[in-house]
Amino acid sequence: MATPVVTKTAWKLQEIVAHASNVSSLVLGKASGRLLATGGDDCRVNLWSINKPNCIMSLTGHTSPVESVRLNTPEELIVAGSQSGSIRVWDLEAAKILRTLMGHKANICSLDFHPYGEFVASGSQDTNIKLWDIRRKGCVFRYRGHSQAVRCLRFSPDGKWLASAADDHTVKLWDLTAGKMMSEFPGHTGPVNVVEFHPNEYLLASGSSDRTIRFWDLEKFQVVSCIEGEPGPVRSILFNPDGCCLYSGCQDSLRVYGWEPERCFDVVLVHWGKVADLAICNDQLIGVAFSQSNVSSYVVDLTRVTRTGTVAQDPVQDSRPLVQQPPHPSAPLRRIYERPSTTCSKPQRVKQNSESERRSPSSEDDRDERESRAEIQNAEDYNEIFQPKNSISRTPPRRSEPFPAPPEDDMATAKEAAKPSPATDAQFPVPNICPGGADTLEVLSRPPVVTSTPAPKAEPAIFPATRNEPIGLKASDFLPAVKIPQQAELVDEDAMSQIRKGHDTMCVVLTSRHKNLDTVRGVWTTGDIKTSVDSAVAINDLSVVVDLLNIVNQKASLWKLDLCTTVLPQIEKLLQSKYESYVQTGCTSLKLILQRFLPLITDILAAPPSVGVDISREERLHKCRLCYKQLKSISSLVKSKSGLSGRHGSAFRELHLLMASLD
Fold this sequence. Notes:
The chain is α+β, with helices and mostly antiparallel strands.
């Protein structure tokens, strides 16, 4: 008899490098759970299909980091707000800019699309909330009342209300028709990071940095319950589609809550760090988190999670027995939203107006077209998602298959699961079980799932300079999951297709790098080394800086004191890079500077002040002070890395000894 396969309750799906610089915001498409949009410090908005490695589309036009992004319900439009206060709306199917909205005086912290009309709400660091009409390209109304940055905005399911959360510890509810505040919900003792409407009932949930989640009755305008004891600030919450429970994305865990009375039904350990957004599709919860330029996605199998009924854990430490079951969503205690007819749900008027306006565009629209572009990075995925052959089946397919769950790392847990003792997940254990001895982990007796996306290994902290395989490609991805001779040709075709997907992107990267190096070379030929280094730094591409330093390091006589003032901040960046070759170049340059200039710098700084005015000496003293300050900053970094093993540790220990005189 075949041994039943135990699959994971939660697992890491993939990790991608989403931007050339740090990721500053991201959002999941709630309708499909398969579309991901990321905003970065590189002023771009990139679109991804979950569990696919390549960017579908890259949207440009912003001139400052993108602080907030949001997709509309049908996932046809995307809005992005920048640090400068500008807002841009793109039509994803047409692959072009739709609107540029100006008016906020500070960075955009929150955005949301109206569920049925062509409106966008924006919240800013300037404490204002603005309602924009996409068709008219103007601000319809401005809502004032918060005293600090507005961190989250959500329209009610019927589109009549707008909820706002801010750093001033309050949640406010606005009546869109009357254009005024309906109610204010005080109670939080820290900044409120997120609000969510119940999908059916007049109920609002809010999560705060005070580590509490509060539920608000929108008929009586009072608190229903408060869940305390969250492990950290609450940043991501999501109601189940049928409204039976609330999910909270905590630090390295997912918690499932009920609110009348307040109870925790289940806790699932997920090693996702600080999760940034949640979505549900095919009875799976998708969570995404970002760190620096990387974005990671995770999956939780909700069929294995307790979502109602008996209590798994009580975070409010209430010793009272659970007298009654939470009300079934089919019989709610509160009023239910009255949604308008679904015939109004498609933003057709946006497209019609945008097309008519493009036939007779204004000069401002022309400028938007020139400044903003939608660069399709992967035509195959773009056509699959935004240009489907069957117009009824929309982006991405609503009936997409669930992500296959990988088997447990330790298959011995299958035997343990048959025992009457509480079952736990080998990698993601549930800390408590329901009263009565029922196991929270059931053994699914189904054949092993063949998947081409095994749980990825942790990415190394440093990419070695000499390696046997390219970054981002794994040999296992090009091998058949099941050995069937007839499929050998198909696997080869898939492999070639996978290689071709990144070819255009790589060509663009190399062309850009060649152009940048050509610019630096043009300055270098004039004989001005300092200016050529300045031009390389101004390009803001570390790869160009590394190429130039590798040349300068070959001839120590090229180094001058004023060159050190420019290079030292770049060396600090190189020493923190995840690429070994960058770290090696940074260590070599720093060693040359320390050997040639550190004694000179310390002697000049220790010398008594000169009598009279010596301009050249004053300039030299200023450069020495600047270099000394930069070296002190690098010194702490070198000291922290001197404990590493191998070649890296040896290089940093040598640098630490050379920098001993700075202490």
